[in-house]
Design a protein that fits this description.
The complex is a heterodimer of chains A (about 325) and B (about 575).
Chain A (H helix, E strand, L loop, with lengths): L13 H12 L6 E5 L5 H11 L3 E4 L23 E4 L3 E3 L6 H5 E3 L1 H7 L4 E3 L1 H4 L3 E5 L7 H13 L1 E6 L2 E6 L2 E7 L8 H4 L4 E5 L5 H16 L1 H7 L1 H17 L7 H14 L4 H18 L6 H12 L13 H14 L1
Parallel strand pairs in A: 1-10, 1-11, 4-7, 7-10
Antiparallel strand pairs in A: 2-3, 5-6, 8-9
Helix pairs in contact in A: 1-2, 1-12, 8-9, 10-12, 11-12, 11-13, 11-14, 12-13, 13-14
Chain B lengths: L9 H14 L5 E5 L4 H12 L7 E4 L5 H5 E3 L1 H7 L4 E3 L1 H5 L4 E4 L7 H11 L6 E6 L10 H4 L4 E4 L5 H6 L6 H10 L8 H11 L6 H17 L6 H12 L25 H16 L10 H14 L3 H8 L5 H4 L15 E7 L10 H8 L3 H4 L20 E6 L4 E8 L2 H4 L3 H17 L3 E8 L2 E9 L2 H9 L9 H17 L3 E8 L13 H18 L2 E6 L6 H9 L3 E4 L5 H12 L1
Parallel strand pairs in B: 1-6, 1-7, 2-5, 5-6, 10-11, 10-13, 13-14, 14-15
Antiparallel strand pairs in B: 3-4, 8-9, 11-12
Helix pairs in contact in B: 1-9, 1-11, 9-11, 10-11, 10-12, 10-13, 10-14, 11-12, 12-14, 20-21, 20-25, 22-23, 23-24
Classes of the chains: A alpha/beta (about 325), B alpha/beta (about 575).
Chain lengths: ~325, ~575
């Protein structure tokens, strides 16, 4: 395509946009899950992410996107080529993908030609230091999902197969999207995603018209459209870059930690993971806002996304989790 | 609904659709609903006549594997040539705006649909014509793909006479002219009108109005206009929006008695939906010459509403959201024949149909023959790699995880509705939750009154299961035989897909409606017993949950006849029942 739709030109969908930006600022939040109907700008937003992120320093022909200081995971340093800047990788993981393609496998070509045991890196290697996007994650086969979550959690891909023994860094932010009408994720998996957002198409007719208008303009003349949004994109990119620097210094005062615990308790979100994610996300939010310390406002802004999917103890509860979150938050912050 | 005389319908409209695709391949393609036959062939021939001679045209079989689709190393040729021989995949051969005809699209797997969808959004989007031969409403091309193909063309009603009688349609020269005009067409108010129309039809995805707008622009280019006119927008609404409709639009006349309750409950669109009629009512006094935007909306909405397919219309009227657009297409051949899953050893054979060659095992098999095979001069060359022959090929085998389906057959007849239907629902819900955690699929069949009805085909979606259960009314007779047969059919079709099936009957076994729908206790009982015996012969594992207050002899007999486990629904303890179902499935 050559052009990707600018992130800043996406109409509405604020919660999704916020969640993705938080994940850019603080990758340790651990993945974003986007649930909603088709045609709600899920894929568009994820693909547009690459435009928001600063380019990464890596080597010309390094399949692992290693950073300059890193030792080469396989092969020698010479074969990596010169040091270059590349856009942050956003890798698509298609449905029905085989395990070999994901983790990498023995290089058939080399094995047949030279009888050489070489490793052919898979999608996990390509996604290193970037984003791994799975559309319809709820339809992905279970053993692949298990594998992905394991790698995402450890940041390292360990391959022990075909007589190969390779380990390489695979630090990426997992972004999954899907339509709950077509099947849900196991609760164990839900919990492993850091943030979860629900998207729906804009209800307001004017917003809908605006979406169609912008997308149509983009498709007819991507050049002009991207030029028109260049400034907005640059502004957003700078904000993310600044926040990435700032996030390590954002303070989490005692009061904020206490408040986070209270919120989790009030909502019945069990496990420390929820609390931890809440704090990390709030810190990223604070960094984006240019604040030095986490306040209640930051917590409140990120709590729905950080906790929504952790409430679902009873999969049959009809009340939307967003409603419950809202109720719980009002309670917790009133105290 | 007013229909102007020159509104193209049927075959003429299908031909126009072909022209639109040829003009703007960015529309992605079309879903062509028709059985194999002259009409379909005629359309494909016509479409081809509109394209340049050098446009690639490839058939994509529904069973295509990754290697054939995306290309890869041709192993046999590689060995023969001694250097890697790459085989171009189908998508590569099709290339940008080439045509891929997807045969039997309704049987395409989610994986294939996902790859094609990705290709459509990639750098070299193909034009996909998905041939949809679905016989029953449960079958449909995978939603991920259908969503991205703008046009939906239905040829099932086109007669031979119509084909013969058709006058000249647009020709390749017209297409070329239109393509020149296309970049300069103005949208006018069509964008808003089509978006509003889509909202009124309950279409959630915004891709639909976007594609409709593109189609309208192509139509305007074809008609030789500079700006999208009312006819173009109406055509786009009929081709793109109508087949995707999920609710009947409110008639523009305010005095129309159609009430709000008739609409499918769809919160997402409710708000936008409510706005549309008001706008239209206000627009009545606008000047006729200058087409006000609201008026255009009205016209496109009318055009779309008039061409909602009949079957869809009936469903919409019944208040049910059509499964065709709601769910993913359910391909039959889900069984993966050991291509995925956990590794489970190797075996000898050619790597065909997506199987993976186990290189190490292959080399190991070839190694001992090294000296024997190297004859002549080769024998003296140092560093000669191992010579691999076809008989050395070893294939990896995988063990796919067997999926299970639990089918709940719920008696919703009058005898139970009064006292225990609510309890049964509670029990089923618990079991649903249980299945959900174990990643089983669940299906729901209810029987009452004249017959049995599949409320929910096997699915993993709890949301859907829950919704259809809640909506289940009670009352009427007990058509037990029909229910057993429906269950057996579902069990068979699931078993064919390689799943293991457990049937859970919740009933008191008191049949009183015969298979032909007539009341009569004796015939009904005899037929039920007969059906139960057949079920036993087919070897399904079943559980009969007696829902009568004190335990019914009929239910016990039924369980005996189908060799099922028999349990009584423990009073006010649905949890215990869920426990039983779990044990039955184990």
């Amino acid at each position: 395509m050559g052009y990707t739709f600018p992130f800043s030109a996406i109409v509405g969908q604020d919660e999704m946009k916020q969640a993705l930006m938080l994940a850019c600022v603080e990758p340790r939040i651990g993945g974003v899950l986007v649930f909603g109907d088709r045609g709600t700008a899920k894929s568009t937003a994820v693909r547009a992410l690459a435009g928001l992120l600063p380019e990464i320093e890596t080597f010309e022909s390094c399949p692992y996107n290693s950073a300059p200081g890193d030792p080469p995971p396989a092969g020698d340093a010479k074969s990596r080529g010169a040091q270059v800047r590349k856009p942050t990788p956003v890798v698509d993981l298609p449905l029905g993908v085989t395990e070999d393609r994901v983790v990498g496998a023995l290089d058939i070509e080399k094995a047949l030609r030279k009888g050489e045991k070489a490793f052919e890196p898979g999608l996990l290697a390509r996604a290193n230091r970037g984003f791994l996007y799975i559309d319809e994650v709820n339809l992905l086969e279970d053993h692949i999902v298990d594998l992905l979550l394991d790698v995402a959690a450890t940041g390292e891909n360990v391959v022990e197969r075909d007589g190969l023994s390779v380990r390489h860094p695979a630090k990426f932010v997992l972004v999954g999207s899907g339509n709950p009408e077509e099947g849900e994720l196991r609760p164990q998996l839900l919990d492993r995603f850091g943030l979860s957002v629900e998207v729906e198409t804009p209800k307001n007719i004017d917003d809908r018209v605006e979406v169609v208008r912008r997308r149509d303009a983009f498709e007819r003349d991507p050049d002009a459209f991207c030029a028109q949004w260049k400034d907005a994109e640059a502004e957003l990119r700078d904000a993310v870059a600044a926040a990435q620097k700032k996030v390590t210094t954002v303070d989490a005062p005692e009061a904020a930690l206490r408040r986070a615990s209270e919120v989790c308790l009030a909502l019945g979100a069990d496990g420390l993971r929820g609390e931890l994610t809440l704090i990390r996300a709030a810190r990223a939010r604070a960094a984006l806002d240019g604040a030095d310390a986490i306040t209640d406002d930051h917590l409140r802004a990120v709590a729905p996304a950080a906790l929504r999917h952790r409430l679902r103890r009873d999969p049959l509860d009809e009340a939307g989790s967003s409603v419950r979150i809202e109720r719980g938050l009002t309670e917790a912050f009133a105290a | 609904m007013t229909e102007t005389a020159h509104t193209p319908r049927g075959w003429a409209q299908a031909r126009l659709a072909a022209a639109l695709l040829a003009i703007d391949p960015g529309l992605g393609g079309a879903v062509l609903t028709a059985r194999a036959g002259p009409a379909r062939d005629a359309w494909l021939d016509y479409f081809r006549s509109l394209l340049n001679d050098d446009t690639p045209w490839r058939r994509i079989p529904a069973s295509v594997n990754d290697e054939a689709l995306l290309g890869g190393i041709d192993l046999t040729a590689t060995l023969k040539a001694g250097k890697p021989v790459r085989r171009a995949g189908l998508l590569e051969q099709i290339g940008r705006y080439g045509v891929g005809v997807l045969a039997m699209a309704e049987r395409a797997e989610a994986g294939l649909a996902g790859r094609l969808a990705a290709a459509l959004e990639g750098a070299a989007p193909p034009l996909i014509v998905a041939l949809d031969e679905s016989a029953d409403p449960d079958e449909a091309p995978p939603a991920a793909l259908a969503e991205r193909l703008a046009l939906q063309i239905d040829l099932s009603e086109v007669s031979l006479g119509e084909l013969d009688a058709a006058g000249p349609g647009p020709e390749i020269e017209d297409v070329a002219m239109a393509q020149v005009r296309l970049p300069h067409i103005l949208n006018g108010e069509a964008g808003r009108a089509l978006t509003e129309t889509a909202a009124a039809l309950g279409i959630v995805s915004l891709r639909a109005p976007l594609m409709a707008l593109r189609a309208a622009r192509a139509a305007a280019a074809l008609a030789g206009r500079d700006e999208i006119a009312q006819d173009d927008a109406a055509l786009a609404a009929r081709l793109v929006l109508a087949p995707r409709a999920r609710q009947i639009p409110q008639a523009p006349e305010p005095e129309n008695p159609e009430s709000d309750e008739d609409r499918a409950p769809d919160d997402e669109t409710a708000d936008s939906q409510d706005e549309a009629p008001d706008r239209e009512a206000e627009s009545d006094e606008t000047d006729e010459d200058a087409l006000a935007p609201d008026e255009l909306t009205e016209i496109t909405l009318e055009a779309a509403a008039a061409s909602i397919p009949e079957g869809l219309l009936l469903k919409l009227q019944a208040g049910a959201a059509p499964t065709r657009s709601a769910g993913a297409g359910r391909a039959g051949a889900v069984r993966k024949d050991g291509l995925r899953g956990r590794p489970a050893g190797v075996r000898r054979g050619d790597p065909v149909a997506g199987q993976r060659l186990d290189i190490l095992a292959t080399l190991r098999a070839a190694a001992p023959w090294g000296k024997v095979r190297r004859t002549g001069l080769k024998r003296f060359l140092p560093g000669q790699p191992i010579e691999v022959r076809r008989e050395d090929f070893r294939i990896k085998r995988f063990k796919p995880k067997a999926e299970t389906v639990t089918v709940f057959i719920v008696d919703a007849s009058g005898s139970l509705a009064l006292n225990r239907l609510a309890e049964a629902k509670g029990a089923v819900e618990l079991m649903l939750a249980e299945s959900y955690v174990r990643r089983d699929q669940v299906a729901l069949i209810a029987f009452r009154g004249p017959g049995a009805e599949t409320l929910l085909p096997p699915t993993r979606s709890l949301t859907r299961a829950k919704r259809s259960l809640a909506a289940l009314p009670g009352g009427g007779g007990t058509p037990l035989a029909a229910a057993i047969e429906a269950a057996e059919m579902m069990a068979h079709s699931s078993a064919r897909q390689g799943r293991s099936v457990t049937l859970v009957f919740l009933t008191d076994g008191a049949a009183n409606i015969a298979r032909d729908g007539t009341p009569g206790r004796e015939t009904a009982q005899a037929e039920a017993v007969e059906a139960a015996r057949r079920l036993r012969a087919s070897g399904c594992s079943a559980l009969v949950v007696d829902m009568s207050r004190r335990g019914a002899e009929t239910a016990k007999t039924l369980a005996g006849e189908m060799a099922a486990r028999y349990v009584r629904l423990p009073v006010a303890d649905p949890g215990a029942l869920a426990d039983l179902a779990r044990k039955a499935a184990a």
